[in-house]
Amino acid sequence: MSRQKDLVLDILTGSRGHLTAAQVFERAKEHIPNISLGTVYRNLGELHGDGMIGRFVLSDGSSVYDWSPDPHGHLICPVCGKIEDIGDPCLMDDLRRIAGGSLISAEIVAEHVCSDCLSEVNKA
Amino acid sequence: MSRQKDLVLDILTGSRGHLTAAQVFERAKEHIPNISLGTVYRNLGELHGDGMIGRFVLSDGSSVYDWSPDPHGHLICPVCGKIEDIGDPCLMDDLRRIAGGSLISAEIVAEHVCSDCLSEVNKA
DNA sequence: CCTCAAATCAGTAATCATTCCTAATAACTA
DNA sequence: TAGTTATTAGGAATGATTACTGATTTGAGG
């Protein structure tokens, strides 16, 4: 595990975050100023391939890397962009049942206005 | 509704298919040889915005357009590429319940080896 | 400590899906 | 029919991601 790969992993797991490659790149530059975006992509891809981090795709086609490799759904607020995990396991359980038990990957991504943004609207 | 937009819609609904923009473009050229890819994209986007067709994103980031606008999950076979609809409504019902009833969009995409490809493997 | 081979890197060029732009065409309205 | 508006074809631009290349780092064996 190189210094760069270790840093990329730390940025994700240390923040328990959901970050795009560009966001990981920005934070990584604070520690290794001349790290390259290609290195961030390669290491994120390897970490995901090794099952150490999660990954899902937004409706605009860009990827988000997830500190947790355990499959779970995500709720995204289109107003503020916040990403919340879906802790309830019933979705993944049902998906496994429907697929016949042999899931290779599973992505559940839903948009809904989060409670914070909803109360902002109701104030007005 | 222009001739081009009507054709794009017919290609999707007539085949009850799950097609990428490039696949729609290929089929569209059989009827309007000089139709442009940009036109296909624009009309697919408008049809989706108007709620006439569905749309979801593959793990490689490319979009698939769905003849059915009703939200439902999809199972994709990584061997043959076949895309199957998930008819069981419990996934979407649970998702709505978890999100608090106000879903703006929902994508459920899972990979699993389909029964056809599985029996191919078992033969060998 | 030194050497060499393998892994990894930084930087950049290339790719690919998608969007944007513009001048031309088609469709509608009065 | 004339004028106005919507839509098109074609190509250029964009943005995320991947591929390539020569340089740098690393780590095992001597």
Topology:
Two copies of one chain form a homodimer.
Chain A: H1 3-15, E1 18-19, H2 21-29, H3 37-49, E2 54-57, E3 63-66, E4 74-76, E5 83-85, H4 90-99, E6 105-111, H5 115-123
Parallel strand pairs in A: 4-6
Antiparallel strand pairs in A: 1-3, 2-3, 4-5
Chain A binds a DNA duplex (30 and 30 nucleotides) through helix 1 and helix 3.
Based on the model shown, name its key terms.
homodimer; 124 residues; alpha+beta; Arc Repressor Mutant, subunit A; Dna Ligase, domain 1; 2 domains; three-stranded antiparallel β-sheet; 5 helices; 6 strands; 44% helix; 19% strand; DNA-binding
Question: If you had to describe this structure to a student in words, what would you say it looks like?
Answer:
2 copies of one chain form a homodimer. Chain A is of the alpha+beta class and 124 residues long. The termini of chain A are far apart. The first copy, chain A, has a 3-stranded antiparallel β-sheet. Chain A has 2 domains: 3-66, Arc Repressor Mutant, subunit A (Orthogonal Bundle); 73-123, Ferric-uptake regulator, C-terminal dimerisarion domain (Dna Ligase, domain 1, 2-Layer Sandwich). Helix content of chain A is 44%, strand content 19%. Chain A contains 5 helices and 6 strands, in the order αβααββββαβα. The interface between A and B is medium-sized, with 30 and 31 residues. Strand 6 (105-111) of chain A pairs antiparallel with strand 6 (105-111) of chain B.
